[in-house]
Amino acid sequence: MTDLLLRNARLLGGDAPVDIAVHDGRVARIAPATGAGPAGPAAEVLDLEGRWVTPGLWDHHVHFTQWAIVRRRLDLSGARSAAAAGQIIAARMVAEIEMHEPIIGYGYRDAMWEDEATAEVLDEVAPHRPVVVLSGDMHACWVNTAARDRYGLPDAGVLREDDAFALQMRLEKAAPGDEDLAISEAAVAAASRGVVGIVDLEMAHNLAGWTERMTRGLHALRVHSGFYPAELDERLEAGWRTGDEVPGTAGLLTIGPLKIITDGSLNTRTAYCHEPYPGRDTRGVLTVSPEESEALLTRTVAHGYTAAVHAIGDAAVTHALDAFERTGAQGTIEHAQLVRTEDLSRFGALGIAASVQPEHLWDDRDPTERIWPDRADRAFPLGALRDAGARLLLGSDAPVSPLDPWRAIAAAVHRSADERAPWHPEHSLTREQALIASAGTLHVEEGGPADMVVLEADPLHCVNSALVRMPVAATLVAGRFTHRTL
Fold it and tell me: In terms of Cα–Cα distance, which of 283, 282, 265 is closest to 273?
């Protein structure tokens, strides 16, 4: 007996409705819609009444625990100055007059501010209560004097790169509330946007946590569990290889890539570039040397791992491609926000995917014109990478951007978040290309996993505003509903 029969579904590019039979977590059969269905009797029959069915969507770059926790924190992404951020925090102080635990905020972006993010701004509104605000790109933390004293930090003000990462990991451990509940809520929210899987690149050890949650019944997502160099020996001793399924998780949890962060970010002016930043005596920060990167990639090849190499500046991208080429390692370059023209074709030639986050261009459009005015035409070069033969993978980098693949797809297609014309539209993707970069394919196929999304609109032909807010009627992972409004 068929486990589930989806009647009167519309597939992308198809003219006539079809019936989709699901059995044992896979698509058993697709046939023209009939009253009897394509596979006889079914345990459950759902008439989709002409709604569109597509393969489920993936977010290929997530820091899931941080995203789950940040969803409960104070949002400062709308602050247009340090003073405005201080006013938001002051209002929280008034609303929580009896509270004493640290205020944790997120989302500030100071690249366009005329004033500076200083400890004094925060001290004025919160002289005794610790305040920590994570930057929108997660590469900096803005702290007041009380937070410096509470956490034993080297200084108050803005911490960048490794100092910021270290503090963020401490905040995760100290986060109030039930972390598992926060993660469960975030997983349900992701499923409501059609997400069937993520590549989790959380800095904290996440494999044990996902294993425990899934064995207890959290089956909302497939998860590729990435890790960092500090955890490499531990995973080698356990005998894991990239792609291995973790027992007891119903095949939903697999071993992901080794993550290497080789440079910083645009907004903190730490992305590593070939040329100095205009008006500054710096090219950014190379956090892992080419020799170290090559040594790590050599180990990944020897032990059956792929690698995910963070590289935002064009020089960091060059070094990452060099290391992949010299070692024969496979994997992704994460972000590839600025790429030299001569490096574009190397992605396809080496088989290295560009794991990109299109929504970042909405946030970084104006900062790029201000910080990299001489190279803005090479920023977020999705179209150039596509034309050069690179495989593109879309993600959010949540919590840097919301975990919502439709926002990423819309940003890749229409490179503008406001009334302005698309920014460097030559780098836009078609809707088909953006969907493939998220789902892997446009087509639900017989024999494939029943990871599917039921949509209220046709994503290939709806208006742009509908694309970014795409109404999702249902999401299925391995044939089970993880979200359903029908």
Answer: 283
